[in-house]
UniProtKB/TrEMBL annotation:
Keywords: Activator, DNA-binding, Transcription, Transcription regulation. The keyword Lipid metabolism does not apply. This is Anaerobic regulatory protein. Residues 144-217 form the HTH crp-type domain. The keyword Transcription regulation applies. SUPFAM superfamilies: cAMP-binding domain-like, Winged helix' DNA-binding domain. The gene is fnr_3. Residues 10-113 form the Cyclic nucleotide-binding domain. GO terms for cellular component: cytosol. Coiled coil: none annotated. The lineage of its organism: Bacteria, Bacillati, Bacillota, Bacilli, Bacillales. PROSITE patterns: CNMP_BINDING_3 (PS50042), HTH_CRP_2 (PS51063). InterPro entries: cNMP-bd_dom, cNMP-bd_dom_sf, Env_Response_Regulators, HTH_CRP, RmlC-like_jellyroll, WH-like_DNA-bd_sf, WH_DNA-bd_sf.
Amino acid sequence: MLVMTKITRFFEQLSAENQNVMLDKGTEIQAQSGTVLFSEGDIPEYTFLILSGLVRQSKMTADGKEFSVSLSQKGELVGETALFNGLALAVTATVIEDARLIRYQRQELENLFEEKGEIAVAFMKWSAIQNQSTQSKFRDLILCGKKGGLYSTLIRFSNSYGEKHKDGILINIALTNHEIANYIGTTREGVNRIMSELKKDQIISYENNKIIIRDLQYLRNFLQCGDCPVEICTI
């Protein structure tokens, strides 16, 4: 029997009172798909809380190719890595699905964390998990090659955006092979080949251009997955 584990996002960890504090302290804005919230190398000015929509964070490689680092959703912060240090931002954040956001001045949010212990603790817990997730992504890419990186990325998308389906797990966002390739630093052609093999072997299938993982255990076995918390294995 397939059991889907719910992931608790930063905002969901807060009490109702402190959720309202977070909502009141910032400025609500609307951002259309394609909006760049900040760019790699920018001096940090704002941090954002996602209320709806999707925000992709990416880096440019030395040869000018885009490498997707993460895909953030409702309840998560974006631009938080600059809090309490003021260092230049290491990624570019782009809205890829129309979003509703709360925008905070960096100093304003730092002051709020100092005033509200529960919010600060929730932030530290969430940040620690994000760091572990990033480390595990690069571990899979380095130790398991491009195929392992692709399998890991599919598992991570299933944990972050998966829904139960009669044939397995439906990744409920549209993903092109080019977009998947950007998450593992390879070519679209390489992803095309591996995805075709997985489809032929009935490990995955498609429905309305969305991926269904039919045999998650096959992917996990290839990666020799342990029993790490699902929160660490996210995109």
